[in-house]
Give the backbone structure.
Amino acid sequence: MTTGPIPSRYEVDDLEFRMVAEGRIRIWIGLVVFSVALLLIVLRLAEVALFTQPPGLGASSEEDVVFRADIEDRNGQLLATTINNYALYAKPSKILNKREAVSGVLSLFPHLDEADLDRRVRLPRDEVRLARGLTPTQKNEVIASGLPGLFTKAQFMRSYPNGAAASHVLGLVDIDLNPMSGIEYSFNEDIVAEDAPPKALSIDLRVQSVLEDELFKTVTKFSADTGAGIVLDIKTGEVLAMASLPEYDPNQRDTISPQKEKNTATNATYDLGSVFKPLTVAMALDRGVTTLDEAFPVHKPFTVQKKLIRDDHESKVPYDAAHILSESSNRGTALMALRAGADMQQDFFKAVGLFDRSPIELNGLARPQYHKEWQDISIVTTSYGHGISVTPLHLASAIGAILNDGVYVAPTLAKVDSAHKPATRRVISSRTSKDVAELMRFVVTDGTGRSAEVPGLGVMGKTGTADKPSVGGYDTRRLVTSFVGAFPVWDPKYVVMITLDEPKALEETHGFATAGWNAAPTAGRVMSRIAPMVDVPVKPIQSASSFVDREALQ
Amino acid sequence: MSAVVYQSRADVAKRIIWGAMILIGISLLGVLYSFKTMAQSARKDVRHLEVQIESEERNIQLLKADVAYLERPDRLVEFSQVTIVAEPLGYKSADMLMRVKAIPLREGKIEGAAP
């Protein structure tokens, strides 16, 4: 039974209408909610798909790009290059299971220390290095392991394919390729510049090899402490070769000691002795102090400030300039220098670069050492290379200036071209230069430098044997022997300088360890071997002694 | 028929337009996604090529170092002395070469030599 009134037909329609309307509203609300949810999902999917990069989960690979241009010799031979290997790193914060990571690394690199690894992966740092020097295969194994928090970095390593050759010139970089010495240091800006071309040096690898070979043989044979050698193109100032013994292999850093690292051609000074005499003679001839014909009374005892000046080869007759050089007379150059005076001598030595550091592109260059007060005894001893300590490069450059038509050219290790030309200055006249070249030729044909002669090359030169400074004077048992040579005499272009520190006498040298027995023949062999390389032809040459009238002197 | 059941043409058109816009939007999204994935794979290809180029450049560098090592003058001297018993070139060799060069060739031999 119904208790209420029965709704009319219109009232039933209204009720149905209301129910349908409410249903529609619910449907719309549902649709909107569904659409919004769908839209959010679509937007999120779109964001993920379109704008998100997938994160790296496992081991990955990164690299720190460090660019260093190659270094080449003057003919394009590779001297230094950069190659890469890999290092294993860990991000401790990303490693969830440290023990698993350590055992994973140990399974790949059993030689690593477990305790050290364990300590490293727990360090509170963004990243720690676990191992160096990984090969590409090992790197791929690390990535394939998928261990979280581990990654490899490509690292760059400086390689010197020629081993110890020119190592003192090239220098070193540290483990992060920061320059430390040599060309690597001096030309660093050129080398690290973006997309820099290979750095071309003045060095000729063939000449360098010959110089090192001959120097090594001599140093070994005479048990010398150290040895230095230089081949210099005196017309351009380019150093074609520079060797220093003992040497080191820059690829084997563990074997490098401070003694080996020292470049004795530029970073050590010596009293070089009689190799200074051509400079004194050149000064005296050029400045009008003497002439080629004047004979000096070297046969008479000669004392300066109570010090007796001795000659190793005592003469019974006066000597002219040619014989002062060929017989290496201390008295002769001393007499010339005294007549020239301190000012002229100092000015001249300064002009040929003997009072300043060599202007070459290397670091750690030695500063010349000489008397502070220039007394008569200083003038005398300096005239024959005692009491003044310079590097072998100083002397090679100075002699180069004398023989290069009288023009000093600053030595350089960069290949000379239109963009790079070393500074030059005239120090003596062209005439004097030719005269001194003839005199130095005479030393080789008729004097103390005969063992340096190479038939057909027109070798000029001068020997020098100096006692080493000691407490209270000089130690006559410890010698520094040198030979400065040049060729060819018809157009002097190359200077070869050899210096040996404390060579020992041998039975076959009759107990002598002087320059004529070791430095001079070494220089001769170097000149003989490099002449074809530098395109110097062999010519029939008349003896230089033809212009020296020995009999007239008698 | 009541007005509640039957919709006006304008409503229908509006719904169709909305539906079409949603479809177009989804289609555009799909197209954008496909372009994006294409660009991504192209970028991956480029990166892959770059990595390959870098790798090859490094290999070339390594080979250059190898060549330089093999061409070391001291190594060549030793090699030539052992294999062909050659002596280092010196002034004597140069002198001999000059003497050989100085020998005049017989006239006509060179020009008429090749039959």
